Amino acid sequence: MPLEVMEHFNIRASDMEATKDFYCDVLGMRVGERPPFEFPGYWIYLGEIAVVHLQAADSNEAMEAFIGAKEGSLEGSGAIDHVAFSGSDVRAFVARAKAHDTEMVHRKVPEFGIHQVFIKDPDGITIELNFRGEDARDFDPDS
């Protein structure tokens, strides 16, 4: 029984609307179908997969019964350092991120021809975006 694909990560967002808008407006994902749970939230899709599940940081009885209580910090990534996605068209992404005043850190991995962009969502979770190909190899964020 080998693993096939990562399906989703769940965020207990301090501002669920701002977090939803970040993943949709900055990263280009979309809100999609979600089961009728007895607590508010969104499922945010990348293609046909709901890769981000959002729920409010404030617990209620229904949420705690279904998911469990969360202990510790609800900021940043906790023990997880970052979440990564593969992207295309680094120039278009950088323009989109700039249009939303998103701070970016750029790195190169020349051995693999990768240009990386690191950003943070409204809850402080680091998102890594990996761009490959000649366009990404030649991209200079300072030009």
TrEMBL record:
Q: Which InterPro entries match?
A: Glyas_Bleomycin-R_OHBP_Dase, Glyas_Fos-R_dOase_dom, VOC_core
Ranges where the VOC domain occurs: 5-132
Q: Could you tell me which PANTHER family the record lists for this protein? A: F18B13.24 PROTEIN, PTHR46142
Q: What is this protein called?
A: VOC domain-containing protein
Query: To which species is this protein native?
Result: marine metagenome
